[in-house]
């Protein structure tokens, strides 16, 4: 009762309640469903009874047809004289005509196996083993055989002893015209292509092996496995079956042949399409639908006024929600009714405005977050903050100050472009102690309206017309690392949500700057380690001091001429610094030997390339460097070492190192010779172009040396 009172206090609830009471939809719909169900059930029941009776009649008809053909076969056997055995016809033309209507062919098979055609001829007939022949002759029943015909209906044959008293044991074998067996009078009334079944009814006959003897539907036709299984164990069974997009109610029934014939039983299946069964429902539906529509029309006339009052606001609210789903947050719904729809429209408009502001803020913040956190250097982070925070917080200017990690008082301030300045601007600043303390005391947010002497980190925004500022300090490990400043022409109206969003975004900037600083420090550490390792390698011999670094510079100049990308240049630089790391395993007696090396010493010296690759192999980050270390002594014509590679089978970096390494070695002192003049070394490189050295690399080298051909 309480629920009803609450429901009726609502004006919209009263309209909907009155509408459904007047319409009486529940009785009308219930009556429609009940009537349809009852009539449909009765039609199906009638169809099931009709199919059941038809199956029984058809079984009797088939048995009668087989009996008729059996009698005619026996009459034929008794009406022929011996002269007929030599294909001389003595029976009347009338009997032969009748036999041709019911049989495709009739042959006599002698006891020696000779086949003598009486009417037509049988091709590819059933297999008549000796056992089958003896069974036909000795049995007092007519034998019925079937033979599967792939792609078509199985063929039916009838066999009897030609003369039971004949000691020669001859057989009369006939192939039955199956269509005439299924349909009474088919031989007089129907052609082979006609279907005498009632519309919507289909008929099938299966032999004992469930091969189709006949189907009123085009082949192939199949039945569910469970139905086929039940056919073997039940005398009669009803089932539903689908074929060719149609649903059927079908019944199977056994044709018990062994009682009268020497044969296995058959099964007939008779089905009627559900569409045909429910055909009488067509008129019923039209009449019943007319009654229902008339009732609904009366209800519609009575309730259309109330429906209109409710429908118009609902449509407007629906359209409004669809616009919101398309992110049109500026859309508004106008509803003039003084009920809950009017209140809902007001709430909807308020919600749309809030959603618009929040969605814009979240989208922009998300884009800024992704851009900031994906950047790995300080300047990209700064560019993103300057370009996007102005859009998010509707300010006239943004500046970002980044302080040195070692000295928190000096740093660089970055500002975006304006009417007077194109592109990003930056300059050095130094923070005074009082300004630093002010930021230390307000680590979250700081609102400033300086009349004069603004802090140095606000000076660029002041020059561009800003008078009020939201300052967001960035502290990392309790040290001031940066400042994000937003400038406004007038004091901004910022609520707590705006301040929280600005602080959240600034924290993301702090994380990004920290990551960028870490990446920069790691990069410096990495290159410093590589250079230290290169010097350690070169320091093993006083003759090779600085060789790796000088060779790296030449290789980088060649790589630049070849247009290598930044990543490829970095890999080339690493490979050049580490290409001789394998010399760690070569003794000074070989490295510093003044005279010519022996054959064994040359072999040991040549192993430094393979040894270097082995040393670097555990370091996954240097996987791209290893081919350069291993192959930098391979020759373009395949005469190098350690593997005798040739052409482009040598990595491009190794081909570049081959030129740079040779030139640097030629122009430096060695224990067995003095440094060559640079011109002579260049000529040496030219002479080996296309043989030991890659022509493309040599050409780039010559351009570097200013001796382009």
Description:
- It contains 24 helices and 16 strands.
- Strand 3 and strand 4 form a beta hairpin.
- The protein has a six-stranded antiparallel beta sheet. Strands 2-1-5-4-3 form a five-stranded antiparallel beta sheet. It has a five-stranded antiparallel beta sheet with strand order 7-6-10-9-8, sandwiched between helices.
- Helix 3 (25-79) packs across helix 10, helix 10 (281-325) packs across helix 11 and helix 17 (566-578) crosses helix 22 (652-666).
- It is an alpha+beta fold.
| Rg measurement, Å | 51 Å
Overall residue-averaged pLDDT value: 78
Name the shape in a single word.
Answer: flat
Number of strands: 16
Distance between the termini: 104 Å
Helix content: 40-55%
Strand content: 15-25%
* Unreliable parts: 1-7, 81-91, 188-194
Furnish the topology, listing elements before pairings.
Elements: H1 2-9, H2 11-23, H3 25-79, H4 93-102, E1 103-109, E2 115-119, H5 130-138, E3 143-147, E4 155-161, E5 171-176, H6 178-182, H7 186-189, E6 201-206, E7 212-215, H8 225-231, E8 236-243, E9 246-255, E10 266-273, H9 274-277, H10 281-325, H11 340-374, H12 378-393, E11 397-403, E12 410-415, E13 425-430, H13 433-441, E14 446-448, H14 459-463, E15 468-476, E16 479-488, H15 496-538, H16 547-561, H17 566-578, H18 588-591, H19 599-606, H20 608-616, H21 626-631, H22 652-666, H23 678-687, H24 695-704
Antiparallel strand pairs: 1-2, 1-5, 3-4, 4-5, 6-7, 6-10, 8-9, 9-10, 11-12, 11-16, 12-13, 14-15, 15-16
């Amino acid at each position: 009762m309480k629920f009803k009172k609450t429901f009726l206090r609502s004006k919209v609830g009263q309209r909907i309640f009155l509408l459904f009471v007047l319409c009486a939809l529940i009785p009308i719909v219930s009556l429609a469903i009940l009537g349809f169900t009852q009539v449909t059930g009765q039609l199906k029941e009638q169809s099931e009874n009709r199919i059941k009776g038809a199956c029984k009649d058809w079984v009797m008809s088939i048995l009668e047809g087989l009996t008729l053909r059996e009698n005619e076969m026996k009459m034929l056997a008794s009406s022929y004289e011996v002269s007929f055995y030599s294909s001389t016809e003595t029976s009347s033309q009338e009997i032969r005509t009748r036999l041709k209507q019911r049989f495709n062919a009739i042959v006599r098979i002698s006891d020696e196996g000779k086949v003598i055609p009486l009417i037509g001829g049988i091709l590819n007939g059933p297999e008549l083993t000796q056992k089958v022949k003896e069974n036909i002759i000795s049995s007092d029943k007519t034998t019925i055989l079937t033979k599967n015909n792939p792609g078509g209906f199985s063929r039916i044959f009838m066999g009897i002893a030609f003369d039971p008293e004949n000691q020669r044991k001859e057989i009369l074998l006939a192939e039955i015209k199956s269509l005439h067996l299924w349909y009474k009078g088919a031989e007089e009334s129907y052609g082979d292509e006609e279907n005498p079944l009632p519309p919507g009814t289909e008929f099938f006959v299966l032999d004992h092996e469930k091969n189709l003897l006949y189907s009123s539907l085009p082949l192939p036709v199949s039945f569910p496995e469970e139905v086929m299984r039940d056919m073997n164990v039940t005398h009669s069974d009803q089932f539903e079956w689908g074929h060719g997009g149609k649903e059927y109610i079908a019944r199977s029934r056994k044709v018990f042949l062994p009682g009268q014939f020497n044969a296995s039983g058959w099964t007939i299946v008779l089905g009627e399409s559900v569409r045909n069964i429910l055909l009488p429902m067509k008129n019923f539906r039209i009449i019943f639908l007319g009654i229902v529509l008339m009732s609904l029309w009366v209800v519609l006339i009575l309730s259309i006024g109330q429906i209109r009052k409710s429908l118009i606001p609902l449509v407007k609210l629906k359209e409004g929600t669809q616009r919101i789903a398309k992110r049109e947050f500026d859309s508004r719904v106008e509803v003039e009714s003084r009920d809950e729809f009017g209140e809902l429209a007001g709430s909807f408009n308020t919600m749309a405005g809030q959603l618009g502001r929040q969605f814009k803020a979240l989208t922009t913040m998300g884009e800024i977050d992704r851009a900031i956190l994906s950047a790995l250097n300080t300047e990209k982070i700064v560019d993103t903050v300057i370009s996007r925070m102005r859009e998010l917080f509707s300010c006239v200017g943004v500046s970002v100050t980044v302080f040195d990690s070692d000295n928190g008082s000096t740093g660089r301030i970055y500002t975006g472009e304006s009417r007077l300045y194109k592109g990003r601007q930056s300059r050095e600043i130094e923070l005074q102690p009082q300004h630093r303390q002010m930021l230390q005391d307000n680590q979250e947010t700081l609102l400033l309206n300086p009349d004069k002497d603004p802090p140095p980190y606000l000076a660029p925004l002041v020059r561009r017309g800003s008078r009020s500022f939201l300052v967001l300090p960035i502290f990392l490990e309790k040290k001031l690392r940066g400042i994000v400043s937003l400038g406004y022409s007038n004091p901004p109206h910022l609520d707590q949500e705006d301040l929280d969003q600005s602080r959240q975004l600034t924290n993301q900037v702090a994380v990004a700057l920290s990551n960028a600083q870490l990446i920069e420090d790691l990069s410096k550490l990495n290159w410093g380690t590589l250079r230290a390792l290169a010097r350690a390698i070169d320091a093993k011999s006083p003759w090779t001091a600085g060789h790796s670094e000088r060779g790296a510079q030449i290789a980088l100049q060649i790589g630049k001429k070849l247009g290598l990308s930044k990543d490829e240049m970095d890999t080339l630089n690493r490979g050049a610094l580490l290409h001789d790391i394998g010399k760690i395993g070569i003794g000074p007696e070989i490295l510093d030997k003044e005279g010519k090396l022996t054959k064994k010493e040359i072999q040991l010296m040549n192993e430094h390339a393979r040894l270097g690759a082995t040393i670097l192999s555990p370091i996954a980050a240097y996987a791209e460097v290893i081919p350069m270390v291993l192959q930098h002594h391979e020759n373009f014509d395949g005469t190098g070492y350690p593997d005798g590679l040739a052409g482009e089978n040598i990595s491009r970096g190794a081909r570049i190192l081959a030129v740079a390494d040779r030139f640097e070695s030629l122009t430096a002192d060695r224990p067995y010779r003095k440094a060559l003049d640079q011109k002579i070394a260049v000529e040496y490189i030219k002479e080996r172009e296309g043989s030991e050295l890659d022509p493309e690399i040599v050409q780039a080298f010559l351009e570097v040396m200013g001796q382009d051909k």
